[in-house]
Each structure stands twice: as structure tokens, then as C-alpha cells.
Amino acid sequence: MRPGVLGFAGQDQPRRTSSSVPQYLLEDAIASGSGATTHVVVTQPRRIAAISVAERVADERGEPAPGSPGPASTTGYHVRLGAAVTRHTRLTFCTTGILLRRLAGDPSLKGVTHVVVDEVHERSLQSDFLIALLRDLLAARRAEREAAAAAGGGGGPPPPQLKVVLMSATLDAKLFANYFGGCPVLHAAGRTFPVSRMFLEDVYEVTGYRLASDAPAALRRHGPSTAHQYTQSVVGGSRAARDLVSRGFGDDEALSAPLNPDYDPEAYSTDVPVFVRRNLARVDEHRIDYDLLEALLGHIDAASEPGAVLVFLPGIGEINMLYDRLTAQRAFSNKGAAAGARCVVLPLHSAVPPAGQRAALRPPPAGLRKVVLATNIAETSLTIEDVVAVVDTGRHKERRFNPSRAMSMLVEDWVSAASAQQRAGRAGRVRPGVCYATYTRRRFEGGGMRRYGAPEITRVPLEELVLQILLMGLGPVSEFLARVLEPPQPRAVTAALEVLKQVGALEPPAPPASSAALTTAPQQPQQLQPPPQQPGQVAAQPLPQPLPQAQTPGQVAMPQTSASLAAAAALAAARREVLSPLGRHLALLPVAPRLGKLLVVGALLGCLAPAVTIAAAMSHKSPFLTPTEDRGEAERARRALAAPGAGGIAAGQQSDHLLLVAAYELWRIAGSSKYGGSARAAAACAKKHFLHGQTLEQLAEMRCQLAAMLADARLVQPAGVKSGGGGGDEFGGGGGGGHGKGALAAAGQWLDDPLAPWNRHARDPVMVKAALAAALSPAVAVMCEDSSPTGPPRWADAAPGAGAGEEPSCAVL
């Protein structure tokens, strides 16, 4: 059994394992007399979870909230662009990316005695990377201790043994135990209160919901049914007569010839009501049935005990759809009890501002029931204490990458059975709870869901991970990735290296060197260079110095790279897997390499503000709306931004990217008090130009975050803005100590300063397009001048064989 590692699989307890286990570790250290030298670092997959758990732990320990004035707290947090730690901090809750940034500069994690990795069942790319690094670190510390013992103490005191705890309510115990050489796994079964489960067939029965044959969630035949053919032959062309005769058939045809391929008539006895079997026979289980969700929430509100309802939906779009439908009803109108409302409806997802996220966690106003519409952010990372009912659609969205086509896309799919179990566990914390699943029992119990989700490292592009592996000097990429928990496909690794070569993030091939030269004079990593010294400058090629190591136990910083990695760096250099100056800059930014290059080039060419807008939209989504009923008018409004006399950066241009910048600038200026605008004016502007206001607000937040990270990475140096605050939340992201709301607010000011050197060409469409071409190459094509004005255009492709074509939503062709 490998010492120092423990797996902990525990369902919800009276005290949440995320908050209680770290405290147990600290209290045990205090009892043994080593509390002063103990530092427990707890990783969470999301920023809001790290902050909320830290606040809960401080409250449980009777201490002030982290970062608040008053006596020092032993509990703190560190997330991207925000840290609340002091020299008294002994429990630091941070995002996985923050700890990875610490490891990038301090591979031995000096001063850290315990690492608790929470929610390991999510199998994020970051957590799997962290677990691989921790396994190597455990072996290194063990070797150092053995060497110190063999030397008899002559070489100084040995480093403390590192202890690692892996936690999850649905831990794949065998997989993790084997990876760590047979480490023990503790199981803590049971919940505060029991949770009963109802599946789709039960939901149909308790609500009395009838799925109409023409409902959006109903499957339809591609050709005419037998009943339809008979009706057509007997009645003819009269629509009213056909409907009357069709009703005479009832819906029995749905039972005799079911449309749902997953429906098994033999699985349901005749005791099951006919309308339930009819629903199951025609339902498209892969679609969200909003009519059913409305009926179910109405039933829960009328029949359930007081308490919150948590609804799991795949993504932000589905949350917005259900939110709009619910709030249009009096009972869910969010207008208060005096106006006849019985519920308050709150969205909860990563794009909701922190104040809105906290509102979803607080009790609702007296006399109202709280209904929280959430993504899987509420599955594990956040705990809503007053939930008595969960509605689980069983769907989520995840990124998937096809290395053969070098394409990544967001795909909606069924959650794993483990995730479904986690979701059900959100109920029953204050009294016996109920989970209403809008998928069948057969799907859950009969193999229609994977037992565990596919690890992210096997289904997403690996460029950002490869950048970190090379930045940390971990040796040849393929060899390191072969040692992770579940390695990615070799062709995915090759594809990532090829993209980084195309971007210019890797040094070009060098002339072959002799093996003797490689062994006697290993190549050292290029010395990091200082940034510009004058405020307001834009950094060109110099790379920022790593931050000094933290001076207090609680601070997680990024110190100098260890010289012990020189051999691995030399081997990687021999294979030419060496970061270029640009690559080292990209490794500090938490975006895809091509978008990171767009930010770097945009700053150098003096068009940073539009570059950040484009990068934010490409990372998130376009704000342009395409309503079905007003599609033509929406397209005309979009094209108007490119009209020669439009006045914005897109005027007279053929560029969807510039249209995006022009639309955002219109909205930003309309809402800016600096230009006499207001929130109402911004809303009117968005409506006039068919823009999604909430998406624009999210893009504004993302722009501030990206700008703050650029300043933190010293790619730009605004006057009066402190750079180099610490590690980032994502791989290589800037941020950390001292950064928070103030940094984001400041970034919103200096980013759009038209007089700043990084914006000297921000209004020049040629410079912006030059930055785009430089960043996105070779994924660039030019329309041939001899293209037919009436037929499809011909393209000169910078990447032959890639198959260039126009995006269906393109507004300029």
C-alpha cells in the first residue's frame, strides 16, 4: 500500500465532507502539536465553490469570513483574481488551477502538508493533471525523506510527509486505488434524510400530463402513418373532418407502433395507465419537455412541503428558456406574494454574477418557495441547504474533440449514473426529499447511462495542457501523458503539438545535435526577462519573471522554477518540444492558444479592446439573436452595422468579427454613464439591434477578466495597476493575490481607453483583421475574386485540404 494517500467516498453527511474533512486534518495536527506547521490546501473545481466552502468553514469554526475585517481567520481562499489569506491561514481553499500554478513554480510544494482534492469524480482535465503531479510529488518526497534518514540528519531535516486525500460522493474507488498503488478508500454511506426517486413514468402519472402528438418533445413519423393514410382515403381534404376522425382513433396507434425506440411495452404492466404508456411510446427522451417541467413544478408547489426546488438543466440556454416560461406565470412571476406569486425563480450557472449566485444559496423571502434553475454547477460544487425536491432532466453539456478532424464542439448528452446519483443527493438535507427524474427507470437502471462520465482529458483539445507540461519542464509530452490516470489518444497529443507549432508556440526544429552534446551540456530553459518598466507600455517579447514564493503559509504563489527539472527540459529540447517566447506568454493565459495569440498580437498592434471582445465572444457565444419569427429583420439589423455609412468599425467591411465588435461597442456606449448612457438605453439598444442583453453582460465580465489577466501577466502595464498578482484559475491564468472586484472594475476602465498605446489602432479595421489573420492562421481562407456573384464562393485556403466554407450564420456574404 502506498503511504500518504487516502480515498474518501462519502454521500452527504450532517456536516458536508468538503468542509468537515479538512477541519479534521487540521484539528488532528493541532492535537498532536504540529498545528503551527500544518497547511492544508483544498482544491475545488470552481471559484464559487472554493469561496463558499471557505466561508462555511470559517462560520463553522466561529471565525470571521475570509477577507473580512477583524481577528485573523485560520481559513482562507485563493481563486483567480481574488485571494483572502493571511499569515495565520492554515486551511486554504483554492481552485484546481491555482494549485497547478503553484506547482509550476514550486514542484515540491514547500510548506504544504496536506492536499485535499475534492470532487475528483468530475474527472476534469485539470484534476487528472493535478493527480498525476501529486503522485510524482509523493514519490519525490518519500525519496527525500529516505535520503535524509540514510544521511543521519547531516543534510538537514527531512521534508514533511505529504498527505493526499481524494474526495467524492461517487468515487470510482478501484480506479483511484490502483493508480496510487493500492491506497485505502473509506466509504461513508447515508444521508441526512432519505431521498425517494420518481422516474418519468411516475412523473407522468402524478401530474396527469398528456404528451400531445404534435408537442415539441414528441417524436414524429417521417412518412404518413397507417391511421393518417386511412383518414386521408376516407375523408379527403377537409382538415376539420380529418381531425375529427383522427380523434376517433384515440392515440392507440402510438401504443401499437411506438415511435420511441427505447420504449419496451413489456416493461410496463396493464396497471400502468394507458396515457402514461402512450406518452412513453412517443416521447423523444433526448429533448427537454418544457411543458412537462412547468406541469411538474406546479405539482411540486401545490403538493410538497415548504422548501426549495432545484432543477437541473443542460446549459444556460435551457435555463433562460424555462426561466422566461415560468416567470410569465403569476405563481412564478418573481413579483412577490403581494402580487400573487408563490415562488421566486433564480438561475444558477457559472455566468451568473457572484451576487446572483449567493442569492440562490440564501433562504427566500417569507411566504415564497425558492425554485433554482441550475447547470451541473449545483451537482457537487454548491450546496443549497433548503432543497426538498430535485427535478433532474438527466442532461448536460460537455466538450468533445475529434482529433481526426481537429474539431471541438459542445455536445448535449446523458449524464452518468454517478452524476444522476449526485443530483438526487441534493434533496433531503432538511427533511425527507424527492428526486423527480424526467428520464425512465429503465434508462437509469438498464444501462442507458454510463456508470461514470468520460474523463475530460480524453475528449477535449489538449493544447492548453501541453503548454503547461512544457512550461513546467515535465519532459516529452507523450511520455508524461502516458502516466495519467486514463491517458488520451496518442493522435490527440500529436494534434495538440501540431496546433502549437502552427500557432508559433514551439521553437522551430533545430539542426541535429550529437548525443554527447545533449548529455554533457543540457539546454537550460530560456531565462525569463523583466517586463517594461514604464506604466502604459505594452510588453513585446520579454517574459515576466515568476512571482516570488509565498511568505505566509496561506498564500499560494508561483515561485521560481526548480533547477531539478533541467534534465527533463533537455530531453524535451532534444525532441524540439520547447516553448517559444510566444508560447510562454500563451501558457500564462487561460484561453485556447489561438485566442491567446489574438490577445498578444492585438496588444502589440494597438487594437487590444476589439481583440478582447472577439476573444471573449469566441470563448463564449455570439450575442446576435436570430428569432424565428423576425429572422429577416434581425439579419437586416445586423447587416446595417456593416453599411458604408454605419459609422462603426464594421462600416463598409465584410467581417463577422468586426460586426461583433461594432455591436458590442454600440451596446457598451449606450449603457455607459461616461457617454450619458444608462442601463435602460443599453437594453433599448440591444432590442433594436436584436442582441441578447444577458450575453452582452457576460461578455463584458469576460472582457474585464481577460484584461486583468493580461495586466497580471505583464503583457500590458496600465498606469496604477499592480501586475503579477499570482497564479490563475485556469492553466497559466493570471490573477490571484490582491485581485478581485477592484481589479475587474479597473480593467473595465483602462481596457477601453482610446488614448492608451494598446488601443492606438483600435478603430482601424485593417489592423484588427491583421491581428485576426495572424492569430487564426492557417485556419484562414480568402474568397477568390473570380467567384460567381450568384453561386457559392470559391476559396483560396491557407490550409490545403481543410475544406473551407462559409458559416451558415454569416451576415456579410
From TrEMBL:
<feature type="compositionally biased region" description="Low complexity">
    <location>
        <begin position="535"/>
        <end position="555"/>
    </location>
</feature>
<dbReference type="InterPro" id="IPR007502">
    <property type="entry name" value="Helicase-assoc_dom"/>
</dbReference>
<feature type="region of interest" description="Disordered">
    <location>
        <begin position="786"/>
        <end position="813"/>
    </location>
</feature>
<dbReference type="GO" id="GO:0004386">
    <property type="term" value="F:helicase activity"/>
</dbReference>
<feature type="compositionally biased region" description="Low complexity">
    <location>
        <begin position="793"/>
        <end position="813"/>
    </location>
</feature>
<protein>
    <submittedName>
        <fullName>Uncharacterized protein</fullName>
    </submittedName>
</protein>
<dbReference type="InterPro" id="IPR027417">
    <property type="entry name" value="P-loop_NTPase"/>
</dbReference>
<dbReference type="InterPro" id="IPR014001">
    <property type="entry name" value="Helicase_ATP-bd"/>
</dbReference>
<feature type="region of interest" description="Disordered">
    <location>
        <begin position="1"/>
        <end position="20"/>
    </location>
</feature>
<dbReference type="InterPro" id="IPR042035">
    <property type="entry name" value="DEAH_win-hel_dom"/>
</dbReference>
<dbReference type="GO" id="GO:0003723">
    <property type="term" value="F:RNA binding"/>
</dbReference>
<feature type="compositionally biased region" description="Low complexity">
    <location>
        <begin position="513"/>
        <end position="527"/>
    </location>
</feature>
<feature type="domain" description="Helicase C-terminal">
    <location>
        <begin position="292"/>
        <end position="473"/>
    </location>
</feature>
<dbReference type="Pfam" id="PF00271">
    <property type="entry name" value="Helicase_C"/>
</dbReference>
<dbReference type="Pfam" id="PF21010">
    <property type="entry name" value="HA2_C"/>
</dbReference>
<feature type="region of interest" description="Disordered">
    <location>
        <begin position="508"/>
        <end position="558"/>
    </location>
</feature>
<dbReference type="InterPro" id="IPR001650">
    <property type="entry name" value="Helicase_C-like"/>
</dbReference>
<feature type="domain" description="Helicase ATP-binding">
    <location>
        <begin position="22"/>
        <end position="189"/>
    </location>
</feature>
